[in-house]
Structures are given as structure tokens and as C-alpha cells.
Records
---
Amino acid sequence: MTNGGVGSAAPRPCRQRDAQRGFHTVDRRTFLIGSGALGGLALTGGLTACRPPADSILNLPATSSPIDNVVIVMMENRSFDHWLGWLGTDDAWHDNAVSRYGPDATVNGSQTQTYLDPSGNPVPTAHLLDYLASGNPWRGCDHPDPGHGWNHGRIQRDLGFLASGSGNDPFATGYYLADDVPFSSRLARRFTVCDQWFAALLGPTYPNRLYLHSAQSGGQKTNYLPINEGGYGWPTIWERLSGAGVTAEYYYVDLPVTALFGQRLNPFNHPIDDYFTRCGEGTLPQVTFVDPGFLNGSRTDNHPHADIRAGEAFLRDVFAAFANSPQWSNGLFILTYDEWGGFFDHVAPTMAMDDRGSYSDADNFAQRGFRVPAVIASPYSQVGAVDHTVYDHTSILRFLEWRFLGAPALGVGADGDNWWLTSRDRWANNLGAALVQTPTVDIGMDLGVAIDPPSVECATDPGADLDPGAPPVPASAPVGYQKHAFEQALDEGYFERVGITPVTTTMAADWVH
């Protein structure tokens, strides 16, 4: 774990250089110039001259990699400290990790922070089950969905998570403990947790999910719905995989995120029931994306105001199906979140190389978002480890491009190569660095962990939409259920426009009721 690597006894010979802007340390122009930014692009140094740890699978030819099947799950709107920060004070986990990997095996998590509200009053972070004991700590029904827009994020970065214009009330400074998230905590403790995984952008859902599928948002800063265009038109990882003969499928609970790219990706889409069938048969494709439910009545995405216990049950079942599959022995399961959701995190978001990087903060697509929870689970991930490498969602693309599309294990390749989509995935760190050549066969965790049933849904009358630039709503002001961006897209007729009808599954009823 020395030099920013994964929890391995073998130190990484050299370190990824990743430009990071402090919260209040340097002005942006000085930062960009000091980082060597050229051509309007903020710089993230690549691993062009480095080599991975001795036991890393990246030392193998991609065609000899033990990973044949990859399952990617992206949940919604939680920050690292808010969701997994308790790992920073988990003494039992820490002692085991240090005994295996050395003194650097510590998770950079902190749930003890204080933020100033708009009146200058200090507000300490709090355990949500205590703070909302008289309300609903599992959903946050009586609180606004924390601010996570382009401007919200910049205010939170520069002025704090309760500053005027942050879109937040004290709900955003609450956190969960390990027992509150029984599946996530077991997965993180057993496999490799990534404590430097940042949202791709300091912005909302659509742009971040677009980066996962295409390494860009097309310059979109908001949840812009391309209803007139019939979907976004730029290239995605799906065409690259398909064109190389790599099998790939997308499974969804109610609405597919791939619909943002219009009808052209519909052939990849399958209802979630098919995922469980394919796991049982051992017939998953080489690359599988799985998304949770986004609609009220089937929401398993962990986005406020969904009950996180429904999301935990969804994740448990999706992971267990893969872990019990014949394909697990050569499988990789990646769990991450689209963005931080406005919840507090004590680590400053980093910069990346991006085609739309800018000296203007208001237009800078090189600015990553705050950290999100992320776990890499595989027989080839290390037991109870932490990876300090800087990742974002395009690190998933970078791994797929190495494993299946001819990209080098490390570095940016040569001009003229055609394995990358944009500068972002070309310069991203390959998360394969977190995987080793020697497998651990024992799954090492309870795949059937008990999870309490969810609470009753929040009131369905959302009331007036919140003004993104308004001061935080006082905790005492009731806030009704606020629709997810995909629910709004359904209401506006977008999914019908691109040939998608919402599906239902009996499994969703088990997860949400």
C-alpha cells in the first residue's frame, strides 16, 4: 500500500501523479498553470513510466487476464464519508489490514466534521439514526434532496456543505454506520474498498452517468433531456465493445439509463429478471451493466428519498447471484455511485485530463466531483484491503479497454490508437491495478445477510420544485417526495420517444416492500 497503491505487500515502484486542488489553498489559474495545464486542459499525469505491483494482473497480457466477466453496478447520490467513512475508525478492520499489508493500510474516512450554516453557526456531522430518530432516517422524507448540481457542488467545495446556495440542510451532514448498511459494510470489509474514487464531474446524475458510458457528457452540466434530439449522439463504450466482438448487456429494474443515447442502444437492454437467470446458467456476457430501480414503487437506487434498505437488499441479491454463478471464479464485480448527492465529504475533489477542461471554473469539465463509495470485489481482489489510487468512473472504461480493446495496461498509448473514447478515459487510471494474480477462493462473507424491510414511502405530493440557488430549507420545514430525474423524463414522454416502456419485476416488490 506504499506510494498510493492497493493494499499489497509489494510497493508500487512509482506513483500516479494526480493534480488536486485544495478547498481554499490556491486560485484556479495558479493551480492550472502550476499543474502544467496546456490547451485548456487540466492535467492528470498518467502512469506512462510506471509499472504495477509484482503480483498485479496488469503484468499479464490482457488476453491472459483471469478476469473474463465484469459486472458493473452504479447506485445513486452518496458520498464516501457519509456512507463508508466509519471504516476510518473501524479498529478491527484496520488491525487486520495493517497485519496483512503494512502501516499504510488505513482508510481515509472521517465522519467527525463541523460545517457552518448560513448564519455562521457550527453544525457537527451526526449519525442519521440519531439525528432523524423522530422522523425517517432511512429516506430523509422531511428534508430536501441535498444539492448536487453544478453550482451546488462548487459552493460546497469552496464554502462548505451548509453554505448559502449549497442546496442543503443538516440532512446532508448526516452519516450512516456499518450496521445501518449491512450489505455494503460486509462487501467493503471483505474485498477492496477504493477511498480515492471520485465522481467523474462535480455535477448531477446524467452527466456522471454519461461519463460512465462514454467518457464525456457532451458539454452538458445539468440533467438535460435530449428529447428533441432523440438521444445523445456521440460514441459510447457499447459500440466499441460490440465492434470488437465483445459480448455486453445492460440489465435494468424499471428504466434503462442507456435510453439517454436513444434507440441505438436498445438492443443491449434486458429486464433485471434476465440477469438472475443468466447468473444461474453461467451465461452472463463478458461485460454486464446492472442498474437499480429509479421509479417510486420500485426504487432501489439509494437516492434520497428511497429507503436505503431497499437498495441494500437489491445490491445483496445482485451480488449474491454473481458470486454464486459459475462465472464468479473469473469474475469482477464493481460497485460505485454516480455522484456524491450533496452529502459531506472531507476530501477535496481532484482534477482530471478532459477535452473540455477550462481555466474558468464555471466551465471546467476537468473538475471531478467529491468521493463516492466504491468497492472492487473478485476472487482476484485483495482481502480486506484499501486502494488509494485516484479513480473516477472512466477508470472502469480504462479497465475494459485494456482487457478487451487493446489498450496498454498503463499509460496513454500512442497518438493514432483507437481504443479510447476521449482524453478522460485515455488518461484514467486502470482499476486493474487493484487486482492480483493469486485468487482467494473463499467468498468470505454472508451472501444472505438479513436486511430489515423498508419503511413506508415518503408522501407522494412533491410540492413546489426547490430553487437550486435558494438557501437550505430549515430542518423543520416538511419536504414531500421529490422525483428522480428519470421519473421526470418518463413524465415528459422521453422514454416513449425512444421506444422504451417501463418494466416491472416481482423482485422489486420484494426489495421495496
---
Amino acid sequence: MKIMGQTPHSTNLRDLLILRANYGDKPLLIIRDRILTFKEADRLSNVVANQLISYGVQKGDVVATFMYNSLEQALVWFGCAKMGAIYAPLNVSLVRDDLAYSLNDTGAKLFILDEELAPAYNAAKPLLTLDPRVFVLGSSASIENKAAECFENLMTGDDKLPEIEIKSTDPMAIVYTGGSTSMPKGVLVSHLYYIGAAIRYAEIAEATENDVHFANSHFFHIGGQQFAITGPLYTGMTGIMEKWFSASRYWDICRKYNVTIVDPIGTMMAVLLRQPPSDLDRKHKVRVGVGVASGQVRGALHQEFERRFGAPMLEVYAMTEVGVLICSERLHDRREGSSGKPHGWADVIVVDQDDNPVPPNTLGQLLLRPQAINTYMIEYVNKPQETLAAWKNLWYHSGDLGYVDEDGYVYFVGREAHWIRRRGENVSAFEVEKALTEHPAITDCAVVGVPSDVGDEDIKAYIQITEGVERPKPLELINWCKEKIAYFKTPRYIEFVDAFPRTMTKNEIARHELRELGIGKAWDATLDEWIKA
């Protein structure tokens, strides 16, 4: 098998782990100062794989996790890869409603969570339609009204490789991405999906086994998976992760581990630039940043970051469905304002509302089609109609607005549907509205993105109260949301309205008009006060 003219080191993650065991005691992962070597990653993942089998997990079954970044989480993923299970990491910020939705959607046979996250799972249990076997990293007594087992039970046993055939096209993981007009979608991806993305990563970063990547994301994000885990695994280098991003400790960590590659997203760049200038700003070994702004931060801020910290920050265009880094700048090929080119990995066209291609430098929807077979998504889990719609006319419809210039450089302009990009997370306006409209005092609402002072967007909710009902205080509505959805999906701004502007054709709320109003006369949850426009 060849991918873009190259013979891959391996075509599935199981064989890649076995191959890379020859790096011995070299660290593959350092997470919160704990080390997992290449050799132990191979051996211990066999143990986890055999234990999963002993607990009834079969090839094709789903193992879901609800865990912070940890070596244990990595071994669960690797264990799934060794015996053919499907790994489904869930966002640790989920709470009752959205956790129940996502866990139900996975159809998980076995569920592993951190003790710290047990309260969210306990709250979600009454809403679950499945009954997976539960393991806890920490005290199993933290799980209410259900027998749970200790994670350590998955770490003790036979370390021989299970005799199970693993193909490159076998499903490897479910990665959740924010929906546009529906609930979040689980993207089913194959082993080869990760291999293709790892090859692209090595190309873009010009990565070698001597590099060290400090990843600023999580196991439940495709970026975290690629930058910290599969990219380094494929290249033979070391990946670094922390529990959360910390601006004050960021460069100290880079210096501590001699980091050479980073991936701060646009909002992180803005926060890092707010740190006081220091004589240490350029005293590090970082030589390149990959996938850093992705359309969130342009121009002056991007350039200031490169000038102050002394390393080029390469733009990419990427999404979970088509694999990370599908279009990218390269160290030798950059064009200001663009996300680079696909470099042979994909066909990219821009179309009008009827899918007709438009001329260069004309705004439209970005459509993509792979050049490397089986390196894109398999499907949206449990959503066949959405899968078909996404691939209408045999092109993947990104839902993103952009254009391609006469030289083939791709420019991301914005999101076509009702997406809000907040703190590096894709938030579905539909999901926030669903949580709000369940409040007994709310007749209707609309959620839009408004400018944020740290890049990306903040969330604003326009709310119409039921006639004759006492209007709740804004803080009450914020707390209502926090009980139902993740904190990053909770609105920052609330404005009460008597009615909504609506479209002529479908009588739908005219969201574009609301977005144009900006923050306006809203209540600000951060300041706990009303803003005077």
C-alpha cells in the first residue's frame, strides 16, 4: 500500500505500536510529568487489550472514556487498537444532558471515567439508554447506585498480543464534533485515517525523531490525538500534554522538555501575548508551530506572536471529518492570510448555493475530496442522512465559507451554518438553544456568536419570555445552562427581546441580523452587570 506515493511505516495503529517498541525506553508520552516509554506503550497496551477481552469487549465494540489527559487514557486507546475495539473519548466539560446524549450515541459496551468526573456521570445516569460496564480511575465508590470497578483491573494481566486481525480500514475511533443545526455528531474514523494524518503532520512540521511536540489540546479532540499521540508515534518523537492550557507555565514547559514543535490555537496565542514581556521570551528551542490560528486570528496578532517568540506559526485548514491538516502552509511556502494549499492530499473547490464551482477569489462554500483513499471519515455514527448530506455530489461539504486564489491557496473566511467558535471549541447554537428553551419561562431564543476580546467568539443568547410569566434573572438562566451543557457552551451575554426578526421565505429567525447587532445592550455574565450600548 502507498499513501501519496509513500509506503507507510504501518497501516494500522496496532502494528505501529509494535514497530515503534524498538525505541525502547525513549519517552513516547509525557503527561503531567509522568512518562510512558515506547516499549511500555506496546507492552501495557497488550495488557489492557487482553483485559478488555476478558470483560466481554469484542472487535467492533465501543469503549468510551470520560477522562482528563493521562497515560491511562492513552493506554485505553492503544489497548483498543490492539484488539479492534472502537475508542470514543468524551469531552470532560460535558455535564448531565450533553454527557448522556453523547454516551448514549456511542453505544458503549464499557465506560471508563476519572473519579473527579463522577458527579457529572451520576447526574447523567437517569438519562442513559445503555448500561455499560463502568471502570473508575480513582475510587469506584464515587459511582452512585451502580457497581463500578477499579481501573487498575484493566492494567494487570497477560501482556501477549491478542491474535485478532486488524485491517487499515477497520474503525478505530469516534471523535465528536460540534453540530451546526443538530446535536454533536460522532465521526467514525479508521486506523488509516490516523496514519494519513500522521504523514501530513511529519511533512508540515518537517518532523523527525529528534523533535518534541507540546500539544495544547485533549484526547477528545482530533488535534490533541494527532499532535500529542499519533504524530509522535509515527515519527518516533515525544509528545507532551498537560491537564489544561496554562499561559503562565507555557514557555516554562517548553524549556523544561526542550520542545521544538507547538500548536497554540488563535485564542491561546492572544492570551500568551498578554503575558508580561520577558528576557526569556526567545529562550526556548521551539522552531515551528503547526495548526495555530486556523482562521481565528489574522494579521497583526499572528505576526506579533512570531516576532516576539521567534518561531514561525503555520496556518492550516482542517476539520475532524477529513483528517487534520488537510490544507497547510509549509515552512518554504507561505502566503499571508491563507491556510496554505492541500499539497496533493485533497481536491478543494469553492461552490455557490447550488454546488456550481465559482471562479478564483470568489466567496463560496469550501468542498473537499480526498486523494488518499480511506483517510477521511467513515460516517457519522447513527446519522446516515447527515452522512449522505455531507457528501452530496460526492464532495464533502464543509459548511465553511472561503475562497481559493488563482495559485491554489485556500482562504477560510467564516462558518456558513450556526456554528460558534469559542475558546477553541466548536459550539452548536442549536444545542445551546435546546437547553435554554427547556426553561419554563422561555418561549423562544436564538444564540449567535459575537466578537470576543481574546479571539474566536463569545456566545450571546437572545431570549423571548412567555407572556404573563415573570422574567427570570440572567444569572438564573446561566446556571440553568451550566446544569445541562458544558461550561464553554454557556452564554456570556443575554438580551431579552419581545420578538425576533424573521426571514421572508421560511419565517425562520434571521440570525444574521442578530449577529450584526453585536454585544449590544446585553447582560454580561463575566461582569455580572448590564452593558450600556
---
Amino acid sequence: MKILLVDDNTYILQGLQAGIDYVALGITSVLTARNLSGAAALLEQENIPLVLTDIEMPGGTGLQLLEWINSHCPETVTLFCTSFADFDYAQKAVELHSFGYYLKPVRYSELQKLLEKAVDEVRKRQSAREQKQYSTYWLDNLSVQKTHFWQDALLNVDSYDEDELEVLAQTRHLSYSKDQRFTLGLLKFEKTQSRMDGFSGKLERFVMHNVMDELLTDTGIGIETMMKCKKDTWLLILSHSLDISAAQMHGFLNKIIQEIDQVLQCPVNIYYTYMTEFSEIRSRYFDIEKVYQDDVYEHSEVIDIDAWQSPLYDSQMPQTSYWEALFRQKEIQRLVDEVRKYLESLAAVRQLNRQMLRKIRITTMQMIYTVLWERQVDAGRLFQEPEYDRLLENSQISVEHMLNYMSYVFYRAAEHVEDTAKTENAVEIVKNYIDQHFCEAITLEDLGRLVYLSSGYLAKSFKKATGISLGSYIIDCRITYAKELLMSGDYSVSQAASLSGYDNFTYFSRVFKAKTGMSPKEYKNSF
């Protein structure tokens, strides 16, 4: 610890240096200055937590120095040692939060005791600052830990049962338990022609968190996590008490839609489930995903998945059943021709406008989604290319634009219905991908995108074909690789964990022992 002595009298400075036992106070360095400017220069250069200064000095008083310290070094403890017992000086010193006011002549034993108290105050302030820094770090780290936990629990392929979820939470220092409940939601954005179109990922996160922070003020609702989980889609997990009813939560989610529409002019659908038990959080997420993938509405809406029913396409369009039959029979060019005939017949009698085109497009897409969902093809992933977005945006301009859009949809959907009918091929593709990427964080989204299958169907098909789950297959690949690394003797246990795809050492050790009967360290030492 350093102390700065400030006095214009050289003899007093020498006496203060010699008369105080600084070592006993824990002070290792004594610096001196003879005026305000010299003291300020040292304080700017050095970390000096304690200052003992005179008041009356040429070039600026000790009171002015304390004002400067309060502005530039607010945690520094300052005491006055002066010959002036002036009430105005003392009053001003109190106003400026001086720690002490000692009158000369100096009696070093008394001043030593006052400095002991000042040193204690320095340590208290340092401790408070460190505690504040730790608290800030802990809160920031808590948010990161929650994000990683929910990503592992819901988005990555590794599967966990109820007990494993609690253990996983504990390894991340999170106090989640099976008795807790959360409202779980997916926000699906339609960014085309909105202010969000073209936003960078960083700007999008900034805007979303600002919107949510403003809406959540004084609501009793907290955000456990909010993160982008796929293209134009955000995962939202909220915590709150049962005092907030299902109707109130529905209303709050409506406010989110309204705020986003007002601020960003961006339509958004929210698919959610109210107060889901922690032990069921993963399966309920898949339920939301299924509705999200099946729903083709384009207007802003809050959708409680437990009250949702798959929409039926318009029964008043007799052509739809015929078009579906052609699609199922894979007569795609004939289907395109029939759609052309229908659109041109409506145009000929002036019954076709943009509103009608939109109705036809939505009805036709619902038919396509129905067939795709029967075949377990994930339409949401299938139609994510920029070309699809471009054709969709222009589809209501004219008959030709609509035909270009529908032709693209029909041919692409038919192609993948045929490809994914052979689930053995899909499983083989997924296995090959896992074999090459098991060290990375693999999500169900990654695997589903490879073969355009829904997550649930892909998981069932994989287990049926291989006899083990996707999560178990990835774990087997990782543990096998970790064993090879440990057997080589060239890698530590922590290095083997990291290189085999685990960022959570505790969980790696637990899985390794469950698979091998030994801890990683025991396994390494056995060679």
C-alpha cells in the first residue's frame, strides 16, 4: 500500500516520514509532494489509496486537492494535517468527505492511531470494490451459464433424462430442479420488408434484449434465456410465479408482438406452452417445434400449442383435392399446368387480385405442408433458401410470378419427399456427418437440415436403424476418441475432454465412468 504526504514545509514532510511506523501500518511506499499540482501528477501516475495533506499551501489548498481527488480518484482516503483550527475549514472538509482532520503540532503516536483507522478504511473500500466486481462478473457469468445450459438441454443432440438435466444444471452452478416450471416459447419472424431485414446478428440481439427489458419491467416475469436458435427464430424461456395466469401470459406475449411490430415493423408469431415442468421441458420444446414447422400463417399471432389445431386447407376450393392427388402421384408438370389454368380462368373473369392470390398461395402451401408432414419432411428447413424468399416476396405480383413460386415449391417438395422416403439413406448421411463432426456441438437443427427430416422422426428412424439413440451414438464416438487420446499418453484428462467435444469437465468425467467403469484419470493411469 502507498501513502502520499502533501505539505509545502520540507521539515514537516521529513518529520512525517521519520515519525510514523509505516511498516506496522502495512504501508510499503511513502511518496511526497509540496503542492496541489505535484500531488495530482503523482496520483495520476500511481495507485495511491491514502493521502495525508496540509490545507494552506501555495498554488492550491488541500481542500481543492480533495475536490480533485473526489473527481479523479474517488476511492482514495484523504486526511488533513493542518495548523488551522478554523471552523470553516473543518466544515468544508466534512462536506468533501475527508476521513480525518488532525491539528498540528504533530504527536506521532496520536497520528499513528488515526492512520491505522484510515488504513482500515482503505481495506474496506478495496474489499467493497472487489465484491462489486465479483458480483458483476458472477451475474454476467450466470447469464452465460444459463444460455449454455438451455442450449445443451434443448438444442443439442445429446439427450438427458430428468435426473441428468438436474445434474447438468448443477455442474453449471444453476439451481434448477424438477419442481420448477417455465413458460417456453419460439418467436418466428417474417423479416422481409421489415426494419429487421439486413440486421447484423449483434444488432438483432441488442434490439431484442432492449425490447424485452422494457416490457418486463415490474411484471414479475424473468428471462431465463433468450437466444437465436435457427433462421429468423428465437428461443424464449420465462420464469414466473403461478400468480401470473395463463390469460395474463397470453396477453404479455401479445404485447411483445405489438412492440416488435411498432418498433421494427416486423410480423412475428409466438408459439408457446405455459408453465412447463422442468422434467418435461425437452419434450415440450419438440411439441412447440412441431407446431412451428406445421403452421404456415403469415400474420402476427400468439399460439398456445395446447389449444392449436392444424389448419385444414380451404374446402371451398375444389381444385385443391385434385392438386393434392397430382402431387402425391408426382405428376408435377401436370400440377403446374392445372394451377395455371385455374389462375388464368379467374383472371379472365376479373376474379383475381392480390388478396385472392395470397389466399390461393396459403391454401396450396397448407396442402403441401400436410403431405410433407405425413412424410416427415421438415418443410420449415426445406424452404429456407434465398431463392424461395425471393419468389415468395414477388408471388402476389402476377399470375406468372405466382406460377414461378408454385413451380419451385412443387418440384423441390416432390424431390425431397422421394429422397427421404428411403430413411436408410438419411440415417447413413447422419452417421457419416456425426463420425466427422462429433467433436463439435451438434444440434438437431444441424442433422435435420442435412436430410430435411423433422427432429423427432429423424431420432426415431436413427434408433430403429442402428439400435441406439442419436445422443448415445455421439457419446460413444466422443468417449471412444477420448480413450484413444488418453491411451496415447500425450494428452491430459482436460485436453482429452476438450478435444473429444466436452466443455463441461464434470459431465465428461461422469459420462466416461458410466461408459468405461473407470474415471478418465484411472483409465489414463492404467496404461
